[in-house]
Amino acid sequence: MNPQENQDLERKIQQLEAEIEQVPSSPTVETEAGQPIQITTKEYPTVKSLLNRVTNWFNGLPGVGKILAIAVAAVVGFAILRSVLYLTASLISLGILAGIVYLVYKFFIAPKSAE
């Protein structure tokens, strides 16, 4: 390494050290005497909160909007159900086909190769 690279590395190290010193190691909370400490945290949406949001949204719809929302939900639900049933039927068919191929191999091909 040449001296120029060493100086650049030392300067970068000093910059990083200065940045580290600027970042507080632990969060500080400043309150007035007698005041309760309030710490806010990020809340991730839970199933219950999402259900409450959907319920509030649905209740805010007019009558025709509610009917359309139910119809769209039913169509999407049946499409998902249909896809799951097709996938299940395909897996069962694939299992049966694999069993038949194995039996054909075991009884017709394997005995001939042993002779």
Provide structural commentary.
- The protein is mainly alpha-helical.
- Helix content is 74%, strand content 0%.
- It is built from three helices and no strands.
**Global Rg:** 33 Å
Mean pLDDT: 83
Overall shape: it is: flat
- How are helices and strands ordered from N to C? HHH
Helix content: over 70%
Uncertain regions spanning at least 5 consecutive residues: none
Main pleated sheet: none
Estimate the strand proportion: under 5%
Number of strands: 0
Class computed from helices, strands and strand pairing: mainly alpha
Number of helices: 3
Keywords: Membrane, Transmembrane, Transmembrane helix
Transmembrane segments: 57-80, 86-105
Short descriptors:
transmembrane; 115 residues; mainly alpha; transmembrane helix
List the helices and strands and how they pair.
Blueprint: H1 3-22, H2 47-59, H3 63-114
Summarize this entry quickly.
With 115 residues, the protein is an all-alpha fold. The chain is 74% helix and 0% strand.
